[in-house]
Amino acid sequence: MISNYLTLSVILFSLGILGVISRRNVFTVFMSIEMMLNAANLAFISFSRLHVSMDGQILALMVIAVAAAEASLALAVVILLHKHKGMLDTNIFSLLKG
Amino acid sequence: MTCWRVKAPLTKKNTKKGAFDIMFTELMFFGLAAMTVLGALGLILFKHPMNGAMSFVVTLISLAGLYALLSARLMFLIQLIVYAGAIMSLIIFIIMFLNIQDSDLPDEKGRGMFLLGGAVVITPIAWFLFKIVKSLPGGDTKIIGNGFGGVKEVGLLLFKNWLLPFEIVSILLLVALVGAVVLAGKRGESK
After folding, report:
1. Is the pTM for the entire model greater than 0.90?
2. Rounded CA gap, B161 and A98, in Å?
């Protein structure tokens, strides 16, 4: 049943949101975002199987490309943050507070 | 009569084989789904990011298995090679490169309370989404043959109907490359 796959996708997305809003480690937050992207990919591919058309798979491919771009930029920002502050806490991302 | 006798075992065998296939894919699905959810729980519960990254790799590999069950052959390969291979090894490389000590990690003493509160916030939204999912028509999940989701078919579709988005994604990757070089190269220049 396709709805089982979609239920799994909803569970993964909820766990990703939970990781983003309740953890303070930069890496854990970042990987939770990646997990939400993966939940969206699973939904895309389930719908592509449900309608027997491959457009959903191509959208999932695009999402993977965007995730790769996002990973490179986010890791560069994390390296800069660690060099400046020596910490991995999202609470020190408060440079714009004024 | 003889005709029926010849035919009956054949159909019985066929339905048995079909039922076995469906049971096999269901079993595979539940095993892979359990591994996926366990990996995701490990990611949000482990304190050290290295443990979290390792359990996230488990999630990604079982997701690749789920893509194979959904007969998305190219996506199965790309999930394994690009996501579990390239992106996660980049993340793990950076985690090891920064040489994180326990003193570098943020002090997360109230983590359990935050997780509980977050779960309370998320549960109604997830319940709403479950209701939507249950109302969808449930198709069968038999694995399709004749090249559905294979490299040739997806590639043809990608270069015919999705050519402009494909080019835009290539520009996005170029911009991300330049941005990463600018961001990471700035410190070395100023020293």
Report:
1. no
2. 48
